[in-house]
Amino acid sequence: MVKAFNAPSLPGIYLMKDAKGEIIYIGKAKDIKKRVASYFRNSADLPDKTIRQVAETDTVEFIVTDNEIEALVLEANLIRKNRPKYNIDLKDSFRYAYVLVTAEEFPRMLTVRKLTGKEKGKVLGPFVFGEQRAIAITALRKTFKIRTCKHLPKRECLLYHIGQCSAPCIGKISKEDYKANVDSAVRSLEGNNETLVGELAKRMSEASRNQRFEEALKLREQIRALGGMGEEQKMETRLAYDQDFIGFAADREKACGQVFNLTRGTIKQRQTFRFDSTSDLVPQFLREYYSYAHIPEEIVIADELEEAPALMEFLSRKAGKKVRIVVPKKGSKKELLDLVEKNAAIALNTSVSPALAELKSALRLPLLPRIMECFDISNLGKENTVASMVRFKDGTPDRDNYRQFRIRTLTGQNDFDAIKEAVGRRYRRLLEENQQLPDLIVIDGGKGQLHAAIEALLELGERDIPIISLAKKNEEVYLPTRSMPVGLDRRSAGLKVLQAIRDEAHRFAKRYHTKLRTNEFIVEK
User: Fold this and answer.
1) Which residues pair with 102 in a beta bridge?
2) Model pTM score
3) Domain-located, residue 236
């Protein structure tokens, strides 16, 4: 019987395969775990076709996405490619719409339902929600006064007189200024629309104050539509070349790699590889994988490789075309690569919380932070300064490995020196006893506390343990290699794990401090 409990409670798609490994059904879900499990509960209540589908299913695989919209696009792409027997046959006419910015002297913005590959201009999309797309395009045309006429007339039209067209037909705007307006509209459709949304919000407030409620309502609809365009469609983008996105996840003993193959910007397949060793993994994998696999024009990986120039030259000669190895730091490539790494982490060990995969990616950690240790200081005035150390394993408290420290060397109140002493004592002992070190150290505090902890590690000759600090005021993460803090999404599961271990360390330190004060009160009394 197929087991569904290994699936994650995340949005994405699931692929049902028969005993031969052939895909027989592809579906999308807001929560993959619940959706897949529903097939195997009360199966007698399912339609006959679905009962046959479940009976033929031998394994279920899944691909995690960041939201349901991405799952929709990826589902449609893979169904068109694989034509599973139990999916409804999607005709070629079923496609999401695109926006074409024409290559004319004064470009227009057109909606395109089906792409032929012969389009002249810039293609944006796909856009899943038609009403949202239509409202956004209308707002952009009006705001940036982009023409809608098929052929330039010899005199201005009504749209110019009501302020909705810049009238390039009669030379009311230069080519350069018109192009700048079109470029601004394109950036808005690509999600960089903060300036435009801010301007529309001011106009909405003004219309509301002056009781022009119908105008205010239309402006609100435009703001919402433009906001929706900001959801990156990482599952499909229009490109003129092929790409492979390669991500890895590793623990102390094994590793998992995933390759997302993109053809002209569309994900065509996902491949998973497992390894018993994590040593020198990425360059070895690239050499072996591309000894037989199709070599794309661009290979996207997470970290810089010393041998990247030699690899690029080797692959370029082998493929007979120029091959690039890129390491994105931000943007849509970085977001898709993060998603590949998240899927690799889940495939490595489905018992590991996806939150740990988020942390590994966001903080650029070498390993999944399955073992995390967090330090906090508690004091009241100049007396009884104490420190706590709590350990989390796979994102949950490991209370058998909690530790408490009564600070010995400190005279007065100095959190930095207290942190340095506690960190030094903890890892001196682990190193002397050859015990397992954590995958990540978390310090409760800001840059000062972090630097004090790093000093303690350096004095022990330990440079390899990843270490960060979490400042409570704005929940900012400080890294040793960055001058500015990293701001994680407040809703992210990774930040919630950091907050949980920080709050647990604070609770444990406060409890120890209270115990010491109580004992002293009893003795004095």
Assistant:
1) 121
2) 0.46
3) no
Residues 420 and 490 in one domain: yes
**DSSP code at position 404:** E
Same domain, 21 and 43: yes
Q: Which domain holds residue 187?
A: 97-229
Give yes or no: residues 382 and 503 share one domain. Answer: yes
* Calpha distance 505→511 (Å, rounded): 10
Number of folded domains that form the chain: 4
CA 112 to CA 97: how far, in whole Å? 6
Instruction: Give the chain's mean pLDDT.
Output: 81
Give ∠ CA 449-249-275 in degrees, rounded to 5. 135
Q: Domain for residue 354, yes or no?
A: no
User: How far is CA 268 from each of CA 76, 82, 90, 154, 331, rounded to the nearest angstrom?
Assistant: 11, 9, 16, 48, 21
Do 340 and 401 lie in one domain? The reply is no
312 lies in some domain: yes
What is the DSSP code (8-state) at residue 49?
H
Spatial contact of 189 and 183, defined as CB atoms under 8 Å apart: no
Whether residue 206 is found in the same domain as residue 274: no
Say yes or no: 199 and 223 in one domain: yes
Domain edge (last residue) among 203, 229, 255: 229
Confidence of residue 276 (pLDDT cuts 50, 70, 90): low
396-429 confidence digits (pLDDT tens) = 899 899 999 888 877 667 889 999 999 999 999 9
The more confidently predicted of residues 303 and 140 is: 303
Which runs of consecutive H residues, i.e. helices, occur in 349-485? 354-362, 415-432, 447-459
Residue 91 structure tokens: 């005709």
The string of pLDDT tens digits covering residues 347-389 is 876 555 678 878 887 888 888 898 999 999 987 656 678 889 9
Q: Are 240 and 70 in contact (CB under 8 A)?
A: no
User: What's the rounded Cα separation, in Å, for the pair 407 and 299?
Assistant: 51
